[in-house]
Write a structure and sequence with these properties.
With 450 residues, this protein is α+β, with helices and mostly antiparallel strands. 43% of the residues lie in helices and 18% in strands. The protein has 17 helices and eleven strands. The protein has helices spanning 4-15, 67-74, 86-93, 118-130, 136-155, 158-171, 184-189, 192-202, 218-227, 279-293, 299-307, 340-357, 361-377, 383-393, 399-403, 405-410, 414-424, and strands spanning 26-29, 35-40, 46-53, 97-102, 107-114, 208-214, 252-258, 265-272, 311-319, 326-334, 436-442. It has a six-stranded mixed sheet with strand order 1-2-6-3-5-4, with helices on both faces. The chain has a five-stranded mixed sheet with strand order 7-11-8-10-9, sandwiched between helices. A hairpin with a 6-residue loop joins strand 9 and strand 10. Helix 2 crosses helix 8, helix 10 (279-293) crosses helix 17 (414-424) and helix 12 (340-357) crosses helix 17. The longest helix is centred in the first third of the chain and has 20 residues, at 136-155. The chain is globular and about 60 Å long.
Length: 450
C-alpha cells in the first residue's frame, strides 16, 4: 500500500490548482520579428518593461571579452535625440527606476514605472535599439568606470578572482570561460568602432524579446509596440557559433592562500545539462538540488550544520537557464577544528547516499511542493514574471515550459532524482569533465593546511 507521502504526490500531480497556466501570458510577434510577452496584473498601477537581447559575453569576438557588458554601459550614453544620461534622468523624474544587466547569453534593460508612462519607456527603448550615439569623451570615461568596476568587484576580491579562475578552468575552450565583465587587458584594448560593430551586429528587433508585466492589457501593448518598436527594420543576424567545452579526464584542484581571506572556504564546480537541451533531466536536477539544499531541514544544512557541526554554512545550486552547458556549484565553510577536506567529504557523502539509496517519498513531496510554491508566489510580483520569462525565453525555453512548470516538476519521481544523481554527480564517472575543486585559505594557514 502506498504511504501517505506517495498519496500526497498523487494529489499534487492531479488536483493542484497550480496547473492552470501560472501567468496566463499573452504573446504576439511584430512583422520585424520582435517577440512580445505580456503578463497582465492589475493589482497596482505599475509596469515592468524589459527588453532582452539574445546576445551576451559568450558571443563576443575573440580577444574582446567584456564588450557586451561595456555596450550595456554605453546604451545609457545617448542617441541622436536623447543626451547622455538623459534616459535615466527621465525615468527618475517620472517616478520610476531603471537598470540593465549582462550575462553570458543575454543582455537586458528594464524600467519599473507607473503604467501611464509605458509608451514613453517603449519610445525611448526603441530609440536606443537603433540610434545609439556615443561621444569619444563618454566612451573613454565609461571605459574607466568599467575598469574600476572590475578592480572593485574582482581584482580586489581574492574569492572573486579564485572563482573566476575556477570557471575558466572548468569551461576550457568554451567562451563561458571568459568573465562577463571581461579580462582587464582586453577591456583596455578595444575602442568605440569595436563596440559599435558589436551593437550593429546584434541589436535588432528580430534578436530581442520584449516582456511587459503589470497593469496593462495585451491590446494596449500591441498598439504601442507597433508605433515604437514596430518601426525598426529587422537585420540579418550572424550565427551564434560557439566552440564546445572539450572533454577532460584529469581532476583539477585549485589552492589559494591570501592575506585578505578571513576563513577557509571549499568550492566546487561541474558541468551539467541545461533546460534547452535536456529539459527532463534539468527538472529532475532542480528537485535533487531542493532535496539537498532547499531549507534548514533539508539534507546538507541539517546534517552538516545542525547535527554534525562540520560546517557553519553550506550550499549547492544548479544553473540551468543557459544556452550551452549548465553548472552545479557547491560551497561550504568549515567550523573551527574542521578542515576543507571534512566539508568536501561530507557534501560528497550526502550525494553518494542519494546515489546509492535514493530519496524518501517525504523528501520528494516536500521538494516538489516548495518548488511549486515558489512559482505560484512569483505571480504576486510585477517585475518577477518579467524576469522569469526573459531568463527562460532568451536561453531557449518555450512559453509552455514556464506556464506548465509546476506540472513538469510534479512529474519527477524518486527514481528520476536518483538517476540524475548517478548520471551527473558520480565523481568516478564524470559527465563531460570532472569537477573543478577549490580550496581557499587565509594566509596564516600556509604550511598547516593539507
Amino acid at each position: 500500500m502506498k504511504n501517505i507521502f506517495s498519496l500526497l504526490i498523487i494529489l499534487i500531480l492531479f488536483t493542484s490548482p497550480a496547473f492552470a497556466k501560472i501567468f496566463d501570458a499573452k504573446t504576439f510577434t511584430l512583422d520585424n520579428g520582435l517577440q512580445v510577452i505580456v503578463i497582465e496584473n492589475d493589482r497596482v498601477p505599475v509596469v515592468t518593461h524589459m527588453i532582452w537581447y539574445k546576445v551576451g559575453a559568450a558571443d563576443e569576438p575573440k580577444g574582446q571579452s567584456g564588450i557586451a557588458h561595456y555596450l550595456e554601459h554605453l546604451m545609457f550614453k545617448g542617441t541622436e535625440t536623447v543626451a547622455p544620461g538623459e534616459f535615466s534622468r527621465i525615468v527618475r523624474e517620472l517616478g520610476g527606476e531603471d537598470n540593465a544587466f549582462t550575462s553570458q547569453d543575454y543582455t537586458a534593460y528594464f524600467q519599473n514605472i507607473a503604467s501611464m508612462h509605458l509608451e514613453k519607456m517603449m519610445t525611448m527603448e526603441a530609440d536606443r535599439m537603433m540610434n545609439l550615439k556615443v561621444f569619444e569623451e563618454d566612451f573613454q570615461s565609461e571605459k574607466n568606470v568599467v575598469l574600476e568596476e572590475r578592480r572593485q568587484r574582482t581584482e580586489n576580491s581574492p574569492q572573486a578572482l579564485f572563482i573566476e579562475q575556477m570557471r575558466a578552468t572548468l569551461h576550457g575552450n568554451h567562451p563561458y570561460a571568459n568573465p562577463v565583465i571581461g579580462w582587464m587587458d582586453e577591456i583596455e584594448s578595444y575602442e568605440w568602432p569595436d563596440v559599435k560593430a558589436f551593437y550593429n551586429r546584434w541589436y535588432a528587433p528580430n534578436n530581442a524579446i520584449l516582456v511587459i508585466s503589470g497593469d496593462v492589457t495585451v491590446d494596449e501593448v500591441k498598439e504601442i509596440a507597433m508605433r515604437t518598436y514596430g518601426q525598426i527594420p529587422a537585420k540579418e543576424l550572424p550565427p551564434r557559433n560557439r566552440p564546445q567545452t572539450p572533454a577532460a579526464i584529469g581532476q583539477t584542484d585549485m589552492v589559494l592562500y591570501h592575506e585578505r581571506v578571513k576563513e577557509p572556504r571549499y568550492q566546487s564546480m561541474q558541468i551539467a545539462p541545461n533546460y534547452k537541451n535536456n529539459k527532463e533531466d534539468a527538472i529532475a536536477l532542480d528537485v535533487l538540488m531542493e532535496v539537498l539544499d532547499g531549507g534548514p531541514t533539508t539534507r546538507l544544512y541539517k546534517n552538516l550544520v545542525v547535527d554534525n557541526k562540520i560546517a557553519t554554512s553550506v550550499s549547492i545550486y544548479y544553473i540551468s537557464s543557459i544556452i550551452d552547458h549548465g553548472t552545479i556549484q557547491a560551497a561550504a565553510i568549515p567550523t573551527q577544528g574542521k578542515t576543507l577536506e571534512d566539508v568536501e567529504a561530507a557534501i560528497e557523502n550526502e550525494i553518494q547516499n542519494i546515489r546509492e539509496n535514493g530519496i524518501t517519498d517525504e523528501e520528494l513531496a516536500s521538494a516538489i511542493q516548495r518548488l511549486q510554491d515558489s512559482a505560484i508566489f512569483a505571480r504576486d510580483s510585477v517585475s518577477g514574471p518579467a524576469r522569469i520569462f526573459g531568463f527562460a525565453l532568451s536561453t531557449g525555453s518555450e512559453i509552455d515550459d514556464i506556464e506548465n512548470w509546476p506540472e513538469l516538476v510534479a512529474s519527477v519521481t524518486a527514481e528520476d532524482v536518483q538517476r540524475v544523481a548517478n548520471e551527473y554527480l558520480d565523481p568516478a564517472n564524470p559527465w563531460v569533465r570532472p569537477a573543478v575543486k577549490g580550496y581557499l585559505y587565509p594566509e596564516s594557514f600556509k604550511g598547516s593546511a593539507p
